[in-house]
Amino acid sequence: MTHDGMKHAGMKHDGMKLNEYQELAQRTAASRGSDLGLTISGLGICGEAGEVAELIKKHVGHGHPLPSDKLCKELGDVLWYLADIAQRNGLTLELVARENIAKLKARYPEGFSSERSRNRPCEICNGMPNEGLACDRCNGTGVVRQ
User: Fold this and answer.
1) CB 87: neighbour CB atoms within 10 A?
2) Same-domain check for residues 24 and 82
3) How many CB atoms within 10 Å of residue 61?
4) Residue 133 lies in domain
5) Rounded distance, CA 24 to CA 29, Å?
6) Is residue 41 left, alpha or beta, with left meaning phi > 0 and alpha meaning psi from -120 to 50?
7) What is the mean pLDDT of the chain?
8) Measured CA distances, 80 to 41, 73, 106 (Å)
9) How far, in Å, CA of 39 to CA of 94, rounded?
10) Does one domain contain both 62 and 133?
11) Is residue 104 part of a domain?
12) How far apart are the C-alpha atoms of 43 and 84, rounded to whole Å?
């Protein structure tokens, strides 16, 4: 399997944008009421993520090969449900991606570190200790210990 995102099973990809994918995926979304549709997609993404986990478990735990074509299909199903959940909530996948990268850059400004993952600055207090101010996440310490 290549990791450059350009080839898979001998196919060439056209560089589809996330929002374009989201728009095209909506063609197959059922027009259920918002709560029912959101519930179905919320449960669906869990089920599809479970199928991804099962492939990885069999690979790591049982010595099975990890077929990239099957992994790609299951990840695509996860992406479909993610796109539907975002759409139902007025979000674009590109916005979700940008916000996630911004959050990760703020959390790990120098790149990932195990120490920083165990002692993250509180997102509510912005890493500033507030003795006497009871924060639900860090109890006023400014640090969330994992």
Assistant:
1) 18
2) yes
3) 8
4) 112-145
5) 10
6) alpha
7) 85
8) 9, 10, 28
9) 22
10) no
11) no
12) 12
| Residue 44 included in any domain | yes
Residues 83-114: tens digit of each pLDDT: 999 999 999 999 999 999 998 998 888 999 88
The dihedral built from the CA positions of residue 22, 26, 28 and 32, taken in this order, carries a sign that is: positive
Q: Are 55 and 4 in contact (CB under 8 A)?
A: no
Secondary structure of residue 119 in the 3-state scheme: strand
Half-sphere exposure of 25 (CA within 13 A, CB side): 23
For the stretch 59-65, contacts whose Cβ atoms lie closer than 8 Å and that sit 24 or more positions apart, written own/partner, are none
Instruction: Kindly report the number of other CB atoms within 10 A of residue 130's CB atom.
Output: 16
Tokens read off for 48: 């599809």
Let me know how long the chain is. 146
Give 141-145's long-range contacts (Cβ < 8 A, gap of 24+): 143/119, 144/119, 144/120, 145/118, 145/119
Q: Which residues contact 36 (CB under 8 A, 6 or more apart)?
A: none
DSSP strand E in the chain: where? 7-8, 11-12, 119-121, 143-145
Cα distance between residue 115 and residue 146, in whole Å? 10
Q: Note the pTM of the prediction, 2 decimals.
A: 0.77
